[in-house]
Amino acid sequence: MKNNGIIQKITSFFLAFVMFLGVLIPIQTVFAEALERVETKITEFTVTKSTGEVPPDGFKVSDFLKLSISWDASSYQNELKEGDYFNIKLPDEFRFPNNYSACNFDIKTPDGSEVIARAVVMPGTLGGGNIKVTFTKYVEDKFNIKGTMYLNANFNTTIINTPGNHEIVIAIGSYPVTITVPVAPSTQQEPLNNEILNKWVGQSLSDEGYVRWTIRINHRKGILNNVVITDQLTSESGDMTGIEYVADKFKLEEVEMDEYGNIGKVLSTTDISDKVVLSPDKTSFTYNMGNIENKHFILRYNSTYREGLKLKNTAKLEADGESVEKNKAFQLLVPAVKAPEI
């Protein structure tokens, strides 16, 4: 009996000691840490106009550009894990759009059914920036992970502002790729001749994700009577799902312009949203301006957009004895459309 009591006391003391150690040295669950995969290589880097063309005489500094970045992580064989990532340092010679859809996109399998990585673009304030590509669980135990991303950009004219061949570097870690981008001499701007209508479109989406359309009216500063502006949206594919004018975004500016059409001063800005007549499907509008006497005007308005769509726009000005029509188109490429080859 006495021996049993001693054994129980020793056992109790031992258990208490183990519990005490457990408080001092807590047991921790070990999780695999995400790894930066710096051995990922850029295999190809190209710059074209947004239409895919490489101008034979060089780019204009005002061109809207498409950057194609092909990358290859196959050196890791089947060792990639969910959460692993790589960073691409974007060249300072470009400025990148900062709207959400341009800065956050999935890289999917060829059939689009699964996401293999998520890309986040962080544009620099003064140009350049970074892309962080983070792999999903899909890549685990798979070989030959590689792909291509497409980004929209403009030249950073604080750096690219002279004609000639410009060397541009893009890099993952310590593996840079250098290409030469030719820039053409700027052409001499010529005075406008008897223009009463012109139009253009912003080269990136607004912060709200809208396309920004602009019409220049009566540059010749003549007298126009019974002026009617009509405008219509169409798409190359014919699919207009989700596309319409933003009803409360019509602004008319009276301005002063020089002989080249450059705006020197904005004299007034008027919200004319309540005077614009939209079609039932909101893909065309009519605005009755009435008579214009020796004044310059700029009409600004927005439309919605759907990624990858080639959106066309036709503006028409009709007045007594006058009729002019102008066309423009807008397209933002889906940032990553070529999935990795598995």
Explain this structure:
- This protein is mainly beta and 342 residues long.
- It is built from 2 helices and 20 strands.
- A 5-stranded antiparallel beta sheet has the order 11-12-18-14-15, with no helix packed on it.
- β19 and β20 form a beta hairpin.
- The radius of gyration is 30 Å and the shape is elongated.
- The chain starts with a helix and ends in a 12-residue tail after the last strand.
- The C terminus is likely disordered.
Name a few traits of the molecule:
342 residues, Immunoglobulin-like, 5-stranded antiparallel β-sheet, elongated, disordered C terminus
What is the fold's blueprint, element by element?
Layout: H1 2-24, E1 41-49, E2 64-72, E3 85-90, E4 94-95, H2 100-103, E5 104-108, E6 115-123, E7 129-135, E8 146-155, E9 164-172, E10 175-183, E11 197-201, E12 211-217, E13 223-235, E14 251-257, E15 263-271, E16 277-278, E17 284-293, E18 296-303, E19 311-319, E20 322-330
Antiparallel strand pairs: 1-2, 2-8, 3-7, 4-8, 5-6, 6-7, 9-10, 11-12, 12-18, 13-17, 13-19, 14-15, 14-18, 16-17, 19-20
